[in-house]
Amino acid sequence: TDPTAAGLWQSVGHASLPIALDEMESETDNRKNQNIIKFARHAASGGLTLRGGSGHKGTSFIARSCFLFSSILVPPLTSQDQSRIVILQLDKLEPSSKPPVLKPKELAEFGAVFRRRLMDQWPRFEKTLNAYCGGLQKYGHGGRSCDLFGTLLTCADLLLYDQEPESGDVEHWSKLLKRSTLSEAEDDISDSERCFSHLLSTICDVYRDGKKRTIGSWIEQAAGSPEDGVIDYDANKVLGTFGIRVEKPIREPTSLLIANTHQGLAGIFRETIWAGAPGATGVWVQSVRRVEGAQAGKAGTNFDGAPARYTRVPLKSVVSL
């Protein structure tokens, strides 16, 4: 319990031992947990880790451990971590349930038997994995998701049976693990969607009708109705202070202009993965340009008195996110 990422990789060294961590709870400051989860992410791909040492002599090792985390509240996970971790939601124990009796000697025997079974059945691993990955693809899984759930199903199959799985068994388990029904897929959205969700839900420190409103609300007011072709310039002026402007060209769909560098946007994205740095283009530009139909502006424009280059995004793409 309560380890650090450095403590883990120094203890594991060049071994491929599994790591079980209890009470990996979400906390007010999740930086330590995030470093451990990042280490688990590298281990999922067998990543080479390099660390500096004394006397200008570095240390290297390849992370190959698998991880088991347990907690009541799962720490925040990025999309790349969610795609590498299976989340098991446990039901509440019944009052009459007896706690399991854990006997170290018996568990050690189970481990030895499991390892022997996997070694005996290993020659059919690849074909079995391909069978389960094919079944999972039919139910919405992508490449990495197939590798994750397919490997777990394959290992279970190697432990339980002596021959390759029949098509009916593959169909049964693949259907039970339909991607759209899994908790891992509940927040499976693109980077650009996450970026705009953060932007549009940000509350401006500007009052209108006696209350503060979100960036998304100001954009809706600035754009007006699709038919009238009129821009609310007061709302657009508010947006301009944040490096955003609604543009409604004649006979073209309404566009949203987002500055590439702007103090207002830098404040909105501060302490996020889309943050910018003084004198540099904001990282949010990369995410914004991944929206369908987005394109770089050919020249700079004015955001409430502050000139800046920008990215043009079709407003209908943003509203539909």
Brief digest:
The chain is 40% helix and 14% strand.
Task: Characterise this structure.
It is a single chain. This protein has 321 residues and is α+β, with helices and mostly antiparallel strands. The chain is 40% helix and 14% strand. It contains 13 helices and 12 strands. The strands form 5 sheets. A 4-stranded antiparallel beta sheet has the order 7-8-12-9. A hairpin with a 2-residue loop joins strand 5 and strand 6. Helix 5 packs across helix 7. The radius of gyration is 26 Å and the shape is elongated. It starts with a helix and ends with a helix. The model has no long low-confidence stretch (mean pLDDT 87).
Write the element-wise H/E pattern from the N-terminal end onward.
HEHEEEHHHHHHEEHHEEHHEEEEH
Percentage of β-strand residues: 5-15%
Give the low-confidence spans.
Answer: none
User: Helix/strand/pairing class, anyone?
Assistant: alpha+beta
Q: In one word, what is the shape?
A: elongated
Roughly how many Å apart are the termini?
Answer: 40 Å
Strand segment tally: 12
Rg over C-alpha atoms, rounded to the nearest angstrom: 26 Å
Q: Mean pLDDT, rounded to whole units?
A: 87
Largest sheet, spatial ordering of strands: 7-8-12-9
Helix content bin: 25-40%
The largest sheet, given as strand count, sense and whether it forms a barrel, is: 4 strands, antiparallel
* Total of helices: 13
